Amino acid sequence: MRQIINHFTDDDLYKLTMCCAVIDNYPRAQVRYTFTDRDNTVYPPGFAEELRRQIKMLENVVITDEEVEFMKRRCPYIPFWFYNFLRGYRYDSRWVTVRQDDEGHLSVEFEGCWSDTILLEVKVLAIISELYYEMTEQTALLDEEANRNRSAEKARRLIEAGCYFSDFGTRRRASFASQDTVVGAMSECGSQMPGPGRFVGTSNVYFAMKYDLVPVGTMAHELMCAIAGMFGPQMANHIAMRAWATTYRGALGTFLYDTYGWNIFSLNFSEDFANMFKGLRVDSGDNREELDKIIAKYRSLGIDPATKQVVFSNALTTDTAIALQGYAKGKCVPSYGIGTHFTNDFAGIKPRNIVIKLTAVKITESWDFYNDTCKLSEDAGKHTGNPEVVERFMRTLHLR
Question: Is 54 a residue whose pLDDT tops 90?
Fold first, then answer.
């Protein structure tokens, strides 16, 4: 089969920004990641073999001068030393273990230095998603002309509603071509259509470069998960905010707060952090309830919440984003990161419900044991990790 990932920056920006912060703060940390298919999908025979082959082909994918120059221009907050690291970076398929059981269920794990393995997650998820449709012969359902028209209509409605929105859809896209269609259509619509809203950009660095957009993103839950494994979940948000500030000095100031729930984050979110970070990202729970908590917290610190950005990214659609805009307008500076609804919206196609999460960590390679970690969610049933670890973290944080 053809190679699915052909560009180094065909990845979400936050993987690169986190990689930089990891090297800066935890250069010797070792980690494990685990794949979860929430639908317990039965994959077709030979899927694991082809996935291994696709991961092996990543070893030939290297960053180009064009990609480096684009990132230097569009991402001025990234220190230039990091591009020397990226020029020398090479994927290694030995970091990845892929298995498929007799029933067809898929198992994928990564293990290695955090700064190396961190760049595998989004690419491998995108490969799994696209490969599944290829091997189940569903690609004929991916009507790109309809996708283009549908994407332009979504953009038009969001712009008219005053929404500032971005594409966050790399990891569970139907295909590379499908995301290309979406970003191209929305970029064109955004440049031609006047209105109170705006297509801000895409999390995918390659497509941002192709369409000369702003790559969008900061961090993922894995930053806090790894820190919680090393030092405990009670202070994971505090330590993460300090580490982020060490690397980015106030830039990239949208913090993802929900790794261990609102209550512990709120205790860690002191006035100095609240003033330094531009805003917060809501990625689980009821969007309106989460916004109300955020507003109350800022007000308790004497900060006007209307001056702070809140990025909503919790399984949004065009309709839910427009409805939320009506609720959030004037209360904060709202924006919307929309993923699967943009890049995997085809009649007859069921989007993959798949994630890869960091599940264990050790501070240096010299340690002879890993510390387990997990991610908790404001959405019931979406905790990720070993159930015993989830239970232990919940007791530690007085969530039980």
Answer: yes
Between the alpha carbon of residue 40 and those of residues 20, 50, 184, 294, 351, the distances in Å are 34, 19, 33, 35, 13
What's the number of CA atoms in the CB half-sphere (13 Å) around residue 379?
11
- How many CB atoms are located within 10 Å of the residue 145 CB? 8
Percent helix, strand and coil across the chain, each rounded to 5? 50, 15, 35
Collapsing DSSP to helix, strand or coil, 170 comes out as: coil
Is 111 in a helix, a strand, or coil? strand
**Count of alpha carbons within 13 angstroms of residue 215, beta-carbon side:** 29
Using 50, 70 and 90 to split pLDDT, how confident is the model at 377?
A: confident
* Amino acid sitting at position 322: I
Q: Which of 349, 310, 62, 45 is nearest to 164 (CA)?
A: 310
pTM of the model: 0.97
Structure-block tokens of residue 41: 């999908």
DSSP labels, 290-304: HHHHHHHHHHHTT--
Q: How many whole angstroms separate alpha carbon 273 and alpha carbon 250?
A: 10
From the number of C-beta atoms within 10 Å of its C-beta (0-12, 13-18, 19+), residue 354 rates as: buried
Name the CA radius of gyration of the chain, rounded: 20
- Of 194, 186, 189, 187, nearest to 212 by C-alpha is 187
| 381: pLDDT strictly greater than 80 | no
**What confidence tens digit (pLDDT) does each residue in 101-110 have?**
999 999 999 9
Local structure of 278: helix, strand or coil: coil
3-state secondary structure of 223: helix
Ranges assigned E (strand) in the chain: 30-37, 96-100, 106-113, 164-167, 198-202, 214-215, 254-256, 279-282, 309-312, 333-338, 354-362, 371-372
Alpha helix locations (H) across 161-248? 176-192, 205-210, 221-231, 236-248
Distance (Å, whole) CA 35 – CA 20: 23
In b/e form, how buried is each residue of 218-240, taking b as 16+ CB within 10 angstroms?
bbbbbbbbbbbbbeebbebbbbb
Q: What's the pLDDT score for residue 400?
A: 84
- d(CA 297, CA 301) in angstroms, rounded, equals 7
Collapsed DSSP state (helix, strand, coil) of residue 31: strand
Q: Which two tokens stand for residue 302?
A: 């004497």
Please compute, for residue 309, the number of CA atoms within 13 A of its CA located in the half-sphere on the CB side.
Answer: 18
Residues in the chain: 400
